[in-house]
Amino acid sequence: MKPVDSIEGEDAVETRLLQQMAREARDFLNAQDWCARIDQQFLAYGVGGVVAVFLTEITPASIDVDRSLWVIVGDLPPAWIIADDSPTAADALDAYCLEMELWVEAVKGGKSVENLIPVNVAPTLENAEQLGGRLVFLRSEILPRARAESGREVG
Questions:
Q1: What would the DSSP string read from start to end of 126-137?
Q2: What are the φ and ψ backbone dihedral angles of 6, each rounded to 5 degrees?
Q3: Per residue in 86-109, pLDDT tens?
């Protein structure tokens, strides 16, 4: 993991994209009323412009909020995952996919998304189809690479 001020991609373009994604992750957390302050932010895994997973330490606004969170951003809805439940960036990305797949299934089935992970798009069939396609790509192309980089077996 690298502190966000030390992010380096494979080239200048990817570096710029990953830095932009770090800002997006900060902005996402800062918009949450339960986040009083972001204390530290580390890039755990990223593919510039596609997806980035950041481990973030926050000062919570109340005692019932976890201090360590994964924040996933990219060409998909941003979300946070509790770090205690997902020890690696690959685990966090897998948890993200699972939560978003539940949202996609609910929308496609005409069910309420009220008690599911918050998604920053309207629960329409079109949005569910688009997100579903991105999740298939994440699971087939990105997650295996993230698992390999974390030293864990794919599967």
A1: HHHHHHHHHHHH
A2: -115, 15
A3: 999 999 999 999 999 999 999 999
